[in-house]
User: Fold these one by one.
Assistant:
Number 1:
Amino acid sequence: MQEGQNAVEAGAASDSQRSEAGEALARLQDIAVFAELPDEVLARIADKIAPYRAAEQTVLFRQGELPEFLYILLSGQVVLDARAADGVETIIEILTPVEVFQLAASLTNAPYLTSARILKEAQLLTIPAALLRQMIEAQPPLALTMLASMSRHYRMLLRQVKDLKLRSAAQRLGCFILGLGRQQGFPQRIKLPFDKQFLAARLGTTPENLSRAFATLRSHGVATSGSHVVVNDPMRLAAFSVPDEAG
């Protein structure tokens, strides 16, 4: 009788594992970075994926640690920050869904250059970094996919460096608002994804300079309303901010 019960429990556990793997596979297929991979490659990755729900202020990893996982942010927000030798901290990036992050560290097994903590309760997927490195040696399609993802991330970083060197804080803010509008379907009233302290850090400026940037944008058709901005004249804002073409 006990053997029969154990067999039923084992079968139920096996069914549950297959269901979780199937759900992980479906999620991967919906993420642009993985969508074009062959099913057999996706299935192997999905088999090792672990879903992870994290509360605000949870630390995912710390600067200087060796990478254990590649992270995929499905919901919530993650802040990447860095600390100098004298203890000064700065925010490097604020991540929103859907974002695959720490790919370069995972593939090279190099220490994290930033720390990561949860800014807003988040749902993530984690993929063992060692598994990725092992699979890339044997799976050229995966290597090409990872290379394409790193290339897109490089372009994003280069665009941010250009912003810091070539645009004023008000222009950077204008470009950011226009980008949000594009993501949100070009509504007149655009929701800011985080508070103005984090927005200032994201744009590489101070809260005081951010306030001055918002004041500058008022003469270019932008008004603020709590956690929203109202863009009355997108063309006028674009003429002032001169955003890069998407891509």
Number 2:
Amino acid sequence: MTNFLRRTIRFAHVAWRAAYSLTEYGYLRLKLGRSLSYSERAAWLHRCCRKVLPHLGVQVEWHGRPPTSGLLIANHLTYMDILLLSSMTPCCFLSKAEVRRWPVFGWIAQLAGTIFLDRKNPAALLRANDQLRALLAQGVLVVLFPEGTTSDGSSVLPFHASLFQTAVESDIPLTPAYITYRISEGSLAEDVCFWGDMTLVPHLWNLFSRSVLHAFVIFGATERGFENRKEAAERMHSRVMALADDQKTASGTSGHTPEKAPGTHGERVAAGPVHVTLAKRAEMDGSP
């Protein structure tokens, strides 16, 4: 298959899936006679992402148990991280305010219950914190990318401690995760990661020309009981860095991601490590 044909088919599928998902959202709202709750929105996005990723040539594999509530703390490389994590478990996201203005994707993000952070607007930050408390109180899993931006994947950037304030005040459990990708044709930094002054449509057009994109996530142990937001940020950063180091070591020795999620010293809420692919997960729960 030529690159142009592959790109065209994948863009067409994204457009069709977006239209289908928006129609489904409208149907659900009419059926319920009210706005969808945050948990219902998270479940809707979960279904959308699980169905679209295989058609984009993305092969998903993860190690450990994805949390079902609290805050999921992860490094951030690209917009694909959102599709990736949402395909694994229903969740909502904290995102920078600029995403709201993205064509189509911004609208879907709003419908999915995304909390948009505008650090330059104190009033908007207060509203975002109130929204975050509401989601966490309802038991919805919220994904936080505390680097505050995307990177080229060469390292994990420092975490912004202010983003942990609400979780520390409410003693919310935090689960670290490390995300990475492997691509046989091209570069992780230039062809997968979305950072610097890159623009969305040209980046997508290039990414969709690649035959297969391998996506990996390692989940660490869940922890809680932090004294302050600085401690929470520093400890979660060290946990994510440890997951990254273990993954790189395993990849360097075997060519694969580790069979088990690396251990940490936090309180483990979930049971022991699990090795699952997206295809295997579909077989487990019988979803298409």
Number 3:
Amino acid sequence: MEKPRIEPDRYPLNGTRLYLRVQGEGEPLLLLHGGYSNLTVWNEAAAELKKFHTVIRFDQRGYGKSDPVNTPYSAYEDIRAVLDHLQVERTTIMASSFGGSAAIDFALAYPERVNKLVLIAPSLNGEKYPFRLTWEGIADFLRVKRHGMDKAAECFMEKPFWSYLIPFEDESRQQLKRLYLDNVVFFYQGKPSLHRPLLPLAASRLGELACPVLIVEGERDLPFNRQVCAKLERGISGAARIRMDGCGHYPHLEAPDRLLSSVLPFLVPS
């Protein structure tokens, strides 16, 4: 593959502007972040992965330095637009949280463009979030609007409900807080409800996924998220599932070295 050389920047793609970063040489590997995050959550992992892959990252719509969500859109079509822009025909995707649901949708919509999937604590379109999770997300959004980002961040980091997201180690905790604060410009000004998943919803179509799939589950993750991992393993033929002991929802932030030692054999088989 001839790798386009670009500096980190925002590009007009699929009706918005998305912030992209490309590093390394080799087979393409797209990294998709999840909520309360942006592409920098992958910094440590990308530093190692770029030795083996052309690593592609972008701030998903409404996060980091990409534009806010103001019109209806589909995350899987943003993936297509990024790959088309970079002239990437096929890629492996490693995706976290809601990035996992986007990766699954993309693999169902464009199976010929996906080599493998690594799904880290993924969500799944068609699996309804528990009421408490939905409510806490809405409450966080309203807290930012009413009290400002700094106070909301302090509350988020200390609120017991969100403990499954919060790393134990102090440096990683501070990194997550910085990621949270970095979304003040666009995420909390946009309208996340405008997202449109692939139809029919992916939860009823897991048997259609034909590429190799590795599922990564955090031991400390929310029970609902662990249940989604189990559903994916049951529903996808040949899928494998590993558990990251001591980790919550973001193993790539909490224990990037240990995560890579588990997934590299899948990505780069000997």
Number 4:
Amino acid sequence: MSVPSPAPRRVRPPRWLDLRLILGLALVLGSVLVGVRVFTAARHTERVWAAAHDLAAGETVTSADLRVAEVSLPGSLSTYLPASRVPDPATVNRPVHAGELVPRSALGVSPARTTITIAFPGDNAPRIHTGDRITVWVSNAKCPVAVVLPDVVVQQVQAAGSGAFSGGSGIAVVVRVEPTEAERVVRAQAMDGAVLRAGVLTGTAPATPASGLTASGVPSSGAPSGAPSGAAPTNAAASPSATSGDGCGAESP
């Protein structure tokens, strides 16, 4: 009995265009491209401005107060001031520490300001540092205490012997104020027997408003609450000179 032979099967020649090979190559190539993209993005930096030194709130800054820093942060150009933009004189509205990147939101338009030095001899002021907020009072023997500057940021502090004093102890602070406020300071300093005192402000509560100064330079009657201890009497009625017609307590005609 004969056994039939199996039907022959045609052997396909090997093909180089294999679907599995193509998929494997595509995965490898995709991984390489993603890795290159991530590596390139990690090395990409943006040039932005950073503070070259501590900047006090209210201080006017220019490019001399800044330095260029290279950072790799998402959205850095939309958040921080790019180094490609030379900053016009602007005012910082909050303290910026040395080396800190300067946010766009920390800069504002710089209004007209005047820089003026105020000297405080002896113990008429506590320890004051650059960036502190202070209140400045004035008084003399005739008139009650008046607020000259209710809330101002110290731009610089000078020790005794640095030019503000000829001798003795004391400090002098440099502040940047509006021209009308600078006029108040000059008027207070020119008062006969004027005594200037300063206090450091803390917290966020609004400061005591400035008191009126007459055209002759003396404070008007009625001192604000919170005046420093040792100041002249704050009750205008108790001070005869407050209504004596010598210009103290009333605007000059």
